[in-house]
Design goal:
Number of helices: 12
Structural class: alpha+beta
Number of strands: 14
Strand content: 25-35%
Largest sheet: 5 strands, antiparallel
Order of helices and strands: EHEHEEEHHHHHHEEHEEEEEEEHHH
CATH class of the largest domain: Alpha Beta
Distance between the termini: 51 Å
């Protein structure tokens, strides 16, 4: 069955409150941001008879400085973020990740909020957002709330969003001090337009020869993006050498649970991720 636009009801609210009410009124209503995933469902006929709430008129396509950090509007596209000077200068791993999301057409249409709401385990932007300890700002029938990214995803394609609730923006808190080392890496079947087999973001601060702070995050290794809490705890306060890097990599399996699927095997995902982690810690 193919998509039939005549059977769909499309609403175009002008305010967040209107959008929230429209979604809350119909449990089957679907929010439309960039549409890169929605249109796949539409082409398959999965949205016939559904109400679609077009969010494009909402004022959420902006990047602004706040006292708490850099706020990214939910309707900012991957291309917007990849090119934005403040994102590139202060949160470069996110800019790098946005440059790996599909082709130019997808980057120009796909939005940060839509990507988060889609909640794919392989979302390329999620490890950088996790490493930067992003906060998801939501708005809905009961008002506004802030959710740490670590708590936002509840499983494959599942989030904490309540009925009628939307992602308004994402806050990237300003780090207290500059990072000594950072890295974003994506491993896919090919160099471009590939869904990740594993995707990594790492931040490291070394002070007086020892690890003062470290944040390590992987995607595609579990139902949701994961921080490597065991490895991070092990590394803090230690001097970085080959032995410490190898031991941290040995702890990888405590925080992830990769599977075999059409894109890769569990064994390969673990081996590739272990190699990425060791290379980052050794500074290779």
């Amino acid at each position: 069955m193919r998509g039939d636009a005549r059977s769909m009801r499309v609403l175009a609210p002008r305010t967040p409150a209107e959008a929230s009410r429209a979604l809350a009124a119909d449990p089957r209503a679907l929010a439309l941001a960039g549409g890169t995933d929605v249109m796949v469902s539409w082409n398959m006929g999965l949205l016939n008879g559904r109400t679609v709430v077009d969010l494009s008129r909402l004022p959420w396509r902006r990047v602004r400085e706040t006292k708490a950090g850099l706020e990214l509007g939910a309707l900012c596209t991957h291309a917007d973020l990849r090119r934005h000077p403040d994102v590139r200068a202060r949160f470069p791993l996110l800019a790098e990740a946005c440059a790996t999301v599909g082709a130019a057409q997808i980057q120009n249409r796909g939005t940060l909020g839509g990507n988060l709401a889609n909640a794919s385990p392989a979302g390329d932007t999620f490890p950088p957002l996790a490493a930067y300890e992003a906060i998801v700002r939501c708005v809905g029938p009961t008002g506004r709330r802030e959710v740490p990214l670590a708590a936002f995803f509840t499983g494959v394609k599942r989030t904490l969003l309540a009925p009628g609730e939307l992602i308004e923006s994402v806050l990237l808190p300003a780090p207290p001090r500059p990072w000594t080392r950072s890295l974003f890496r994506k491993v896919g079947t090919r160099a471009a337009q590939a869904i990740s087999k594993t995707v990594f973001a790492g931040l490291l601060r070394v002070e007086k020869g020892a690890v003062a702070d470290v944040r390590l995050a992987f995607g595609s290794l579990a139902p949701t993006v994961r921080r490597l809490k065991a490895a991070e705890e092990f590394l803090r306060g230690r001097r970085l050498d080959a032995e410490a890097a190898a031991r941290a990599a040995d702890l990888l399996g405590l925080d992830v649970s990769p599977i075999d699927d059409v894109r890769s095997t569990r064994e390969y995902r673990l081996a590739a991720s272990r190699g990425l982690l060791i290379r980052f810690l050794k500074g290779d």
